[in-house]
Amino acid sequence: MQTARFFIGQIVRHRVYPFRGVIFDVDPVFDNTDEWYDSIPAEVRPRKDQPFYHLFAENAETEYVAYCSEQNLVPDESGQPVRHPQIAEIFDGPVDGAYRLRSPNHN
């Protein structure tokens, strides 16, 4: 099994599609439904034996939660914060280009 290249709180962007987001969870291998997987066009369908990331994501129009394979993500070097409304529930920041998990006693 491969080690995840990205970390929780890191800002990443999709290699092909115009969206970016903050990682809030990592699955060591694919852990979603077959229906979800089969809905991806075959020519861009990722391998299942790699880390998959849960993102608080945004594109030009909206904010949403995305599930992305490691092969389709690259670090986001823009330095811009991500505007997803759920980020503040679990993260502080961004600080030095990444978000930090909030401490449990943070009010």
From TrEMBL:
Domain (Hemimethylated DNA-binding) ranges: 3-102
SMART domains (UniProt xref): YccV-like
Keywords of the record: Stress response
Top-rank taxon, per record: Bacteria
InterPro entries: Hemimethylated_DNA-bd_dom, Hemimethylated_DNA-bd_sf
Residue spans crossing the bilayer: none
Pfam families recorded: YccV-like (PF08755)
NCBIfam families xref list: yccV
Name this protein carries in UniProt: Heat shock protein HspQ
Species of origin: Fulvimarina uroteuthidis
Taxonomic path: Bacteria, Pseudomonadati, Pseudomonadota, Alphaproteobacteria, Hyphomicrobiales
Encoding gene per record: hspQ
